[in-house]
């Protein structure tokens, strides 16, 4: 029976480590547990009366919940590893009676002490293999802390790049460039810049898939609101007389198609055209697409 409890604990720890790996360090996948938490909170926010305000909290709150779930699951896993071997495989400080400190809550206490790297020493493993596992739990705890900091520091620059692209599209939409202005060297340069920015955002959605669940503030900085401006601009430039403009329009269109494919595969599942995917993206973020440039 003891080995079954230990096996369950080890499996839980491995599940947490796998989820952390696929969420933070594997650029083409998203951890199952973290994705479930984020998707659930995002969908719940969409049903609340103040959708935009609730959606604005969904992303940050989901990150906090995911980290909390990782930490609690890791603590519980190590608790199940220690519990079957208490008190016989542990040493106790003077004044503590082993028979009185052999329950689940005591194993939980030992797990919390080790994962937080406090090292109080009043209850410590004595058997050889447990003495090796205890420092490993401390390493896992430190890794979780480091991963959380790295996750936070990585996702907000990705959000800034996405919002900067949306703001640039908003500026273009408000200036209403004419066909003659687009069909020029300056138009080709603008299209090239947009294609590069769209490609960066596509990579960000792959590397930081959880950034999808962050609200983008007002309409000017919302990519879900502004992305159709890029689609319309690429369509207009496709018929330009200037060959460089046509080439730049084709590159922008390819970048938009790639972005739509990523959004559809990972989040929306519409199996539609790029324009249909972007409309679904806008709807999912509570936006109404603009008329475009």
From TrEMBL:
SUPFAM superfamilies: Voltage-gated potassium channels (SSF81324)
Keyword vocabulary terms for this entry: Membrane, Transmembrane, Transmembrane helix
TM regions (residue ranges): 62-85, 138-159
Domain Potassium channel as annotated: residue spans: 102-150
Keyword S-adenosyl-L-methionine: no
InterPro entries assigned to the protein according to its UniProt record, in alphabetical order: K_chnl_dom
Pfam families, sorted: Ion_trans_2
Keyword Membrane: yes
The protein, known as: Ion transport 2 domain protein
Organism, as annotated: Streptomyces venezuelae
